[in-house]
Amino acid sequence: MIKRLLIVIIPIFLLSSPVWGETPGPISMEECIEIGIKNNFDLKKTNYDLLVAQEGTEQIMAQYEPLLSFSTGIKDVRNPVTTATYGSKSRTDSASVGINKKTALTGGTFGATWQNSKTDTNASSASFNPSYNSDLSLAYSQPLLNNFGGKNDRRNIRISRLKEETASLATTTEKNILINRLKKGYLDLNFTKLNLEVENKALSRSQQLLSLNKKKFADGLIEEVDIIALEAAVTLNEASIMLAKDEVKNAREQLLNIMGVKEDIGYTFTELNLLQIPEAVPPNQDETIRITLANRAELKIIKNILEIDSITKEIKANENKPSLNFNTSYGFSSAEESLSNSYDTVGDGTYPSWYVGLNLTLYPFSQKGASQVRASEYTYGKNMAEYERVKLALITDSKAIARHIRTQLSYIEATKNVASLQDKKFRLEQEKFAQGRSGTKWLLEYQDDLSQAEINNLKALTDYYKIKADFELITGVTE
């Protein structure tokens, strides 16, 4: 039975498993970005910064969770014998349980304690021996000046939330920068491939021209110098292809490096169609500035830092106030000959007790608080200057990128027209050369002009999409 199952399962496993050494198919720009985001070390670091910030918030909030406390102990006392009334020795076994909870709403602390003890003594004055004591008390402490109403507690929570949000924005910033680099790296690789195609076309034209003119030379229609010039052109085209191939390899390695690929398993990349002028409406400069200032994560980060500075100043000013705490407690106690009777007495509320008091602490000679407030003000001023600097830089970048896109769209149209004219010029020169009305020099020069015009058009199209990627990075809007 097991052999039969193996006969069925093994072929299915082999068919469903990838073939060893199989290289992945062509990956798109979106897949390239996905791989890069997964592998990037800087992005992983900022993700950990976010996790650390989230844990910081958890730690801040943990102080407002209920705290349970347990204690137990034995106390043995030996006194000099003076009178039998008070005795010479006693032993007390005690145990207690309590719960405390601080609240950020008021800054106060609630508490409840239940305590039991048993005392054995040789004193004749003891009403019970052993005696059992039980106490139940409720307590509350409320700050009235420093941290009144829980202001500092809520401020610290707000700071923690802002730090968490700032870490998240930093992750977004790092991610957007990485996406920009990946897009531009992908476009650079795509351009080098298209450039190689243009160089191959130029070589093909030179080889065809050389082959055609060798026949004319054999018939005595052209001079040997024309053949030499064509052979030199072919050699030059072959050298250009070698350089173009190196550029493809370099661009590919650069893209793999940005992707964070540790082992090259034969990645191939989908070619982009850049041969058509994109139908795009040039962005409005004022709208670009508005979008940038509304979306850019770096500006939001500095705003958060400024809010943290402002809150920190308020905290330091509040901490510099005198500490005045209102304390109150209420409870019941008992002393009985048995533990059950002791519990009953507490439950009946026969012996209540209460306490109300104030605790005042002054710092008349301390300059630390005032110094901390001034330091917070200086830090706020420094970060405000940084905010204005970044804002101005973003406005400048927004104007430049909007203007650049408009210019590039016009430049694309111009390079397309130039390439079309150069193609027409080259074809006319071919006809003249075939009719014997032109020389090799002009034909080769026009062929070079055509190749350069085609490359310029491809470069203009590639640059447009790279500028578009920069536009998305500057405005903080990713598609």
Descriptive terms for the model:
479 residues; alpha+beta; 6 strands; 62% helix; disordered N terminus
Cross-sheet strand order for the largest sheet: 1-2-3-4-5-6
Uncertain segments:
1-21
Category from helices, strands and their pairing = alpha+beta
SSE order, one letter for each helix or strand: HHHEEEEHHHHEHEHH
Helix coverage percent of residues? 55-70%
How large is the share of residues in beta strands?
15-25%
Q: Assembly state here?
A: single chain
Number of strands: 6
Describe the protein:
The protein is of the alpha+beta class and 479 residues long. It is 62% helix and 16% strand. It has helices spanning 2-16, 29-39, 41-62, 151-218, 224-259, 285-295, 297-319, 339-348, 368-434, 440-475; strands at 67-78, 89-102, 109-121, 131-143, 323-336, 352-361. A hairpin with a 6-residue loop joins strand 2 and strand 3. The longest helix is centred in the middle third of the chain and has 68 residues, at 151-218. It starts with a helix and ends with a helix.
